[in-house]
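[stage:ingest] chain + small molecule (magnesium ion)
[stage:ingest] validated
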Amino acid sequence: MDQGHADDLIRGVREGDVPCVARVLSMVENGHDLAPVMMHDLYDPERAGLTVGITGPPGAGKSTLTSRLISHWRLAGRKVGVIAVDPSSPFSGGALLGDRLRMQEHASDPGVFIRSMGSRGHLGGLAGSTRDALEVLAAASYDPVLVETVGVGQAEVEIASLADLTLLVLVPGLGDEVQTMKAGIMEIGDMIVLNKADRQGIDQLESAVMASLELISDESRRPPVIRCSAQTGQGVEDLTAEIDRFISGMEGRAEMARRRTSLILESIIREKGREMAGAVVAERFGSVDEAVESILRGETTPYRIGSMLSHYPRRAIGE
Ligand SMILES: Nc1nc2c(ncn2[C@@H]2O[C@H](COP(=O)(O)OP(=O)(O)OP(=O)(O)O)[C@@H](O)[C@H]2O)c(=O)[nH]1
Ligand SMILES: [Mg+2]
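[stage:predict] done
[stage:export] tokens:
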């Protein structure tokens, strides 16, 4: 593909042409040579669209909630994008089975674009592709773009946190749900959604969450907590109202543009840092495994390799 064709695709994305959007997403996912050029052209830090990350433990009702949110914004006449990310799945492109089921009612709506992304065994890559996919869909005027990640591991949280606003979905009966929160999970969400409010145990969950939030000493940094039932729809309006409030509460667009740009740049620095360091190790030793063998033979240490990386291409300590 040449630059001319890339320009056509970029124009297509800006016009909201669905096949073009799908094509560009595939290029991003597959690490096509022209992907960075396209992203460079499409990136607009002050874009109007909002991206919303939805994360939480398996089965918390994230997809059901996503489906509710889609309905809400469709009624308001907005085009909605959805990216479903499952790091444990090698599949991508088509919707994952469960998500397809849960969001079926929207599958034939031309105003809704749903895309699944799997890891293909490369977690860092997945965060990068999701980050870029959010920008592509926003450039195609999907607003909001929702990104659902399965699970609350570091990778999933990193991915959901790439969005402008992150919802952490919790449910009654997580056992000692506060366990996970102790691991700092309360700091993930800009908003905490207590889903399955139609179930027993919702009061206990709320008390536990509130107690953990009290550990955040700066009250203004405590995320709002909203009860809802994605199944019955109860409380979903409160959630969408809170989301609207969140957006207007940020000191205008400028703050959001700065926060987003900083997240994206940090993510690219992490990704490229890993890539560059990996390439240097590969150049010197052949592979990480061979570097390990070299260390075991007493030829070097992990620290000297580290020093080599920080001084590359200059000389490292002791060389
Ligand atoms: N009672 C009740 N059940 C719900 C509610 N929301 C979702 N469920 C049910 O919980 C189950 C899991 O819902 P999903 O929406 O697939 O949950 P998820 O978090 O997307 O699950 P994964 O993507 O597999 O992590 C389904 O059987 C839903 O019908 C709710 O508010 N109340
Ligand atoms: Mg799901």
